[in-house]
Amino acid sequence: MGIKTVITLQELSPIINSTVLIPTEHGVSDSVYITDQGVLKLFESASSEAILEERNLLLNLSRLPITKHCSDIFFLHKKPCVLYEKLGGKSLESADDNHIIQIAGFMRRFHKQTAGKTSINTPLFEVANLQMLIDQTQYHPFQQVFDSIDIQLSRDGVIHGDLFLDNVLFTDDELSGVFDFIEACEGDFLFDLAVVAASWCLDGEDDHGKVNLLLTHYNANIGFEDFIPYMKYALLYYATTRYISHRDYQSLLDKIIRLDEYAKGQM
Fold first, then answer.
1. Are 215 and 224 in contact (CB under 8 A)?
2. What pairs with residue 175 in β-bridges?
3. In terms of domains, do 112 and 203 share one?
4. The pLDDT value given to residue 265
5. What average pLDDT does the chain have?
6. Domains in the chain: how many in total?
7. Side-chain half-sphere exposure of 209, counting CA atoms within 13 A
8. Mean pLDDT to the nearest integer, 94-106
9. Where is average pLDDT lowest: 2-6, 138-142, 191-195?
10. Residue 59 domain boundaries
């Protein structure tokens, strides 16, 4: 995490009039800087087409508390860049019931607006792509979990796919902004919700109650037990990508183990 491509104010000044350029640790895949005009993201691998796709999606979701593009695409070090609106608030370290209710409401409204919509982006979260990633790792425990999941994913519409705690901001315990839609693509709404459950609800303290709270306020037509395969799949997807990028993946596997223990206890 952190800056991968270093830029300077001198390089930026012909394009963005800013007196500050502060590197951050926020970017996992990209380089992110704070300027006095907004948040500058230099995309390390995303194409201009994907950035324009994100721009169009954000425009269509403008009534939701989301980030916005404040500039056209420009290039530094031959890589595409965009200036985003700087949102107020901070990311959470952990979520309480109030936070879970709010993110459930956001997801409900978000999916209502994107239902049936299409995207030019690669559908990253589909089964075939996850199997390819697992094959790349050659890590047998991932394959064992994959083989244990009985799931049929749908293309319900456009999903975010990465709504972990660090992609949402709160101000005075009120949800103030959601960001990082660059990998939004067609996918399964329950998978999208399961990513939220994985990050916001499965903390080892009343996992069952918190997931049920999420499902209830999303108005999901599914119970905890039937939702387990979606949560396992979401956890496995991100454990696999973290393994590949040499980041912590064991904490996600530990959550899968807890879900399996719960499922066995219900048999």
1. yes
2. 170
3. yes
4. 77
5. 95
6. 2
7. 7
8. 98
9. 2-6
10. 9-84
Does residue 239 sit within a domain? yes
33 inside domain: yes
CA 44 – CA 31 distance, rounded (Å): 7
Residue 2 pLDDT: 79
d(CA 107, CA 209): 18
Q: Which of 202, 59, 175 is nearest to 107 (CA)?
A: 175
Q: Pairing mode, if any, of strands 74-76 and 38-42?
A: unpaired
CA distance readout (Å), 243 to 143, 153, 237, 259: 13, 23, 10, 20
Which residues contact residue 68 at a Cβ distance below 8 angstroms, ignoring those fewer than 6 apart? 58, 62, 84, 85
Structure confidence at residue 25 (pLDDT): 82
pLDDT above 60 (res 132): yes
Is 90 part of a structural domain of the chain? no
- 177 near 67, Cβ under 8 Å? yes
Is residue 147 located within the same domain as residue 118? Answer: yes
Asked if the structure places residue 258 within a domain, the reply is yes
In degrees, to the nearest 5, what angle opens at C-alpha 144 toward C-alphas 140 and 147?
Answer: 135
Same domain for 141 and 195, yes or no, is yes
Query: For the whole prediction, is pTM greater than 0.90?
Result: yes
